[in-house]
Structure formats: structure tokens, C-alpha cells
Design goal:
Blueprint lengths: L4 E9 L4 H19 L4 E10 L10 H11 L5 E4 L2 H4 L3 H13 L3 E4 L4 E2 L5 H32 L12 E4 L4 E4 L1 H16 L3 H11 L12 H9 L7 E3 L2 E3 L7 E3 L7 E3 L9 H7 L1
Parallel strand pairs: 1-2, 1-3, 3-4
Antiparallel strand pairs: 4-5, 6-7, 8-11, 9-10
């Protein structure tokens, strides 16, 4: 049919709850029925991402597939429920709107009744996408507050494990791995004796000892990290890093910008307090 408008739909579910999955399925049906009622529309595809944060677009596989198809000239218009279902990042929203505008691809936001190819669409978009970004910020603040409360209670938050300890995700506790603990003791003993981190790393590599990641190649920085890690004396310091903002998810070392939580005698030590302090 001549002058058919090639239409795509996009839908994102932000959590993996059953309620949201049902919503996701109903939206897919909604878009199929909507396109069927428009004889001048031709449905290209329904693009959908499940259970992925809306604040970043680079992990949304179907979103990226849709953008690629639009840039390749396969789509004339994208329909989506609202700006917050498309993206909650103002910069990303405007970047993709402008990119698609250059390719003469429209985005139709149903809730806000915006067509990005219309004259006032971009002005409305700046305002509404800013509001959408503000929506994500209090959610992030609530998550941060919840994590801080867990830290205060002594629960391990964001623990990635360390050499010498095994982590139990159910009890959220760590226990000594004796085989690995011997390597930790070797490192502290050699360091207190006067050997430098570079020398110790070479010794460990030569002896065939394995790092936490299973490598027999040791680096000076790995040895230094172990010597500085308070967990080896049975203490726990949480809040060493923090997330800068809910959009970039960039993490920085905490140099006093956020509260830290230090708990003595949190678990069984591998190194005595005296040995640890001498090493420091």
C-alpha cells in the first residue's frame, strides 16, 4: 500500500514483579490492537525490555535494536506510553529525539500527547523529560537511605568477597577460608619483615599461590589492597565508595562526602590487631 506509515512500539517494565509483567503483556496487546485500527499504519515490530532500570539506555537491548532499525530507515514512527517508559534521562531523551528527527522519524508519547516532529514538541519534551528525571532522583535517595540503614545494622552491602574469606549470601556473613587465609598471613608477615608489595607479589607468583580470581599472576596493587583491608583484623568498614547520581551510576571513593560505618569485631579475624597496625 502506498504511503504506509511504518510504526514501531516500545515498552519498558522497570521491575520484575508479576504485576509489572502482566502490565507488559497487556501493553504489547494494546499496541497490536492500536495499529490494527489504523489502516494507514504498518506495524514493523514491538520492541520491549523487561526488568531494566530506566535511567540508562545502554543496557536495554531492544531499545538499542529499535534505534538501530530507525536509523537504518526501517521505521517512520515510534509509539511509546510515556516519556518515563522511554527513558528517565533528560540528556538521553533529547539525544535520541534529535537523532531520530534527523532521520525524519517521529516519537509519539501517548500520555503526554507529544509528537516529536511537531513544531512545539521539543519544547514540551525539555520540560517533561526534566520532570521524568526528577522522578528517578527521590527513588534513588530512598534506595540510598535503605542501604545506609543496613550498614548501620552491620549487614554487608555490596560485598564482592575477599581472599581468605567465604561469603554466605543467606546469612550475609563471612567465615575464614583456611587455605586462602595462609596466603593472607604470608603477605602480612613478609610485609612486616620489610619486604615491599612488589617483592611479595613476585614471591606469590613464583610460589604459584592464587589470587581471589584464581590467577597465579600477582600485582603490587593486589598485595597493597590486602594489607589495607580492615576485614583481615575482623572489622568492617562500609561506605568506602558512593554513587554520584542516579543517572550515570558513577561511583567515587568516599573521601568524607557520605557517612561511613565502622564495626569492630564483626567477624573472625585472620590477622591480629597488632600485626595489622604494624603493617599500616
Amino acid at each position: 500500500m502506498e504511503n504506509q506509515l511504518r510504526v514501531a512500539a516500545y515498552w519498558r517494565v522497570s521491575t520484575d514483579s508479576e504485576e509489572q509483567k502482566t502490565s507488559y503483556q497487556s501493553q504489547v496487546l494494546h499496541y497490536k490492537q492500536l495499529v490494527e485500527t489504523k489502516p494507514e499504519w504498518d506495524l514493523v515490530d514491538i520492541y520491549a525490555d523487561e526488568a531494566i532500570s530506566g535511567t540508562q539506555t545502554n543496557k536495554r537491548m531492544d531499545f538499542q535494536r529499535m534505534i538501530n532499525d530507525a536509523v537504518d530507515g526501517k521505521i517512520d514512527m515510534i509509539i511509546t506510553k510515556s516519556i518515563s517508559r522511554f527513558t528517565r534521562n533528560t540528556l538521553d531523551t533529547l539525544k535520541y529525539v534529535r537523532l531520530l528527527k534527523e532521520k525524519n522519524v517521529a516519537i509519539m508519547f501517548e500520555k503526554e500527547n507529544i509528537n516529536t516532529l511537531t513544531m512545539n514538541g521539543e519544547m514540551l519534551l525539555v520540560i517533561l523529560s526534566s520532570l521524568a528525571q526528577q522522578e528517578s532522583e527521590p527513588i534513588s535517595a530512598n534506595v540510598t537511605l535503605g542501604l545506609e540503614m543496613k550498614m548501620k545494622r552491620g549487614e554487608m552491602v555490596g560485598y564482592n568477597g575477599c581472599l581468605g574469606y567465604d561469603y554466605d549470601p543467606e546469612t550475609k556473613s563471612i567465615s575464614i577460608n583456611e587455605e586462602e587465609a595462609e596466603i593472607v598471613r604470608y603477605i602480612f608477615n613478609r610485609y612486616v619483615e620489610g619486604a615491599g608489595c612488589f617483592v611479595i607479589a613476585k614471591e606469590l607468583s613464583k610460589l604459584g599461590y592464587k589470587t581471589r580470581k584464581g590467577s597465579t599472576r600477582w600485582h603490587e596493587s593486589t598485595v597493597r589492597g590486602i594489607i589495607k583491608n580492615e576485614k583481615y583484623k575482623g572489622a568492617l568498614l562500609q561506605g568506602k565508595t558512593f554513587t554520584v547520581d542516579p543517572i550515570t551510576h558513577r561511583r567515587l571513593d568516599n573521601m568524607g562526602e557520605r557517612e561511613q560505618f565502622y564495626i569492630k569485631n564483626n567477624h573472625e579475624p585472620i590477622i591480629s590487631d597488632e600485626m595489622f597496625e604494624r603493617a599500616q
